[in-house]
Design a protein that fits this description.
By secondary structure, the chain is an alpha/beta fold. It is built from five helices and eleven strands; from the N terminus they run βββαβαβαβββββαβα. Strands 6, 7, 8, 9, 10 and 11 form a six-stranded mixed beta sheet that branches. β1 and β2 form a beta hairpin. α1 crosses α2 and α3 crosses α5. The two termini are about 35 Å apart.
Length: about 230
């Protein structure tokens, strides 16, 4: 069935919106992305209007809405959640919350063909939001649960030595352990989560029947969850 899915994100210093269109001929994604510190409220909904106008899609044609549910900036997450919930409620369509860390892993995999990815975002207060992923042919598999922790506490699963670190958390590179640094030949600290990858992940989840009523989907802050463990 044809799909029109809108995704938006304000979880970091960046602000973005994307519209994914999918039918029997394939899928395309139109996106807007800007570095807009402290201007998310002013720019987010205009970006939504821009991608809808470019695609010549009206809000009533949307089948689902998605947003970057975190972890990330508390204020940014609330802005994106509020906008996405309002849209989904008004349109009476499902809402999907997408992990910012998973979206970052997909971005790194698609751009650089990376296989083992550590995503880390600066959580302030000397901590990072982090998770590890195995990436293969656009399939992103979690290798550890998302957590907030000190850089020194981050451990890598398995014996692989081709890990690549991605995200603003790696501006704290000197605080990660020597063992982790030796297992990570490079790190990219300038990538930010984007709505474009969230749209693709949301389309996957929508097809799996994971869309929910707007009021049921909430931001994920992680600040009170400090355990670093493998997912069940």
């Amino acid at each position: 069935m044809p799909l029109h899915l809108l995704a938006l994100d304000a979880s970091s210093s960046a602000c973005s919106a994307a519209l994914l269109r999918q039918d029997e001929t394939g899928a395309t994604c139109l996106a807007r992305f800007e570095m807009t510190p402290r201007a998310h409220t002013r720019r987010l909904l205009p970006m939504v209007d821009e991608v809808l106008a470019e695609a010549q899609v009206t809000p009533s044609q949307l089948d689902a809405v998605a947003f970057g549910r975190g972890p990330g900036s508390f204020t940014g997450l609330r802005i994106a959640a509020g906008a996405a919930q309002g849209l989904a409620f008004g349109l009476d369509c499902p809402l999907l919350g997408i992990s910012t860390l998973e979206a970052l892993a997909l971005q790194a995999h698609r751009r650089y063909h990376l296989r083992h990815v550590v995503t880390a975002l600066d959580a302030r207060m000397g901590e990072v939001y982090a998770a590890t992923w195995h990436c293969l042919k656009d399939t992103i598999t979690p290798m550890s649960a998302e957590a907030v922790l000190a850089p020194e506490a981050l451990r890598l699963p398995g014996d692989e030595t081709d890990w690549v670190g991605v995200g603003s958390g790696f501006t704290l590179w000197k605080r990660f352990t020597v063992d982790l640094q030796l297992s990570m030949p490079q790190h990219l600290d300038d990538l930010e989560p984007r709505a474009e990858e969230m749209a693709w992940l949301a389309a996957r989840d929508f097809a799996a029947g994971l869309g929910q009523a707007a009021h049921l989907v909430q931001p994920v802050y992680l600040r009170n969850d400090v355990a670093w463990k493998k997912p069940a």
